[in-house]
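hiii, so i know i said id send this last week but things got crazy w the move. better late than never?? heres the sequnce for the chain we talked about at the cafe, plus the structure i predicted for it. fair warning i was half asleep when i ran it
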Amino acid sequence: MTKTIVIDPITRIEGHAKISVFLNDAGEVEDARFHVVEYRGFEKFCEGRPFTEMAGITARICGICPVSHLLASAKTGDKILAVKIPIAAEKLRRLMNLGQITQSHALSFFHLSSPDFLLGWDSDPAKRNVFGLIEANPDLARAGIRLRQFGQTVIELLGAKKFMLLGQYQEACDRLYQKKADNGFAIACQNRLRRLILP
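okay and structure toks below
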């Protein structure tokens, strides 16, 4: 007799999903499927819209990684217009993307994965979560929170917001260019980031 085991929802991932495991008559795994169960419809409601709106729309696909979607859309816009952006703009994009990678990896490891890895698979499931990690190792948990905050601060300084950047990216670039001669802005950025890094 065949059997299906469904794990729904899958937790500790960035999104919503479930897993279906199909067993054969001998009880062995015959097939397994990972299902992404959310449907957002971004592809459909982007159809027919001006390409100039895409960066603002696609940045809203994910609250964890809006920068990736914003930059992919911006690069596509660059290709449509057949333009090469200035080196300074390319560096700003890279820096903002590195800020996102930092905050996203910190979230993924410290909030989603570390309870399993650091507390152990055999630990009490009621305590095998981020709060259990805070209780077991508060310094490590605090470091993870500060690392994510560092990445978010880089994004905020370059994108004018931490999340859902929309049209703020251009405003932030303008702000950086306008204030590049003003050392006060650079010093304020350095001080803000330094407070996150140093205890």
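btw The CA atoms of residues 40 and 165 lie 19 Å apart. thought thatd interest u
miss u guys!!
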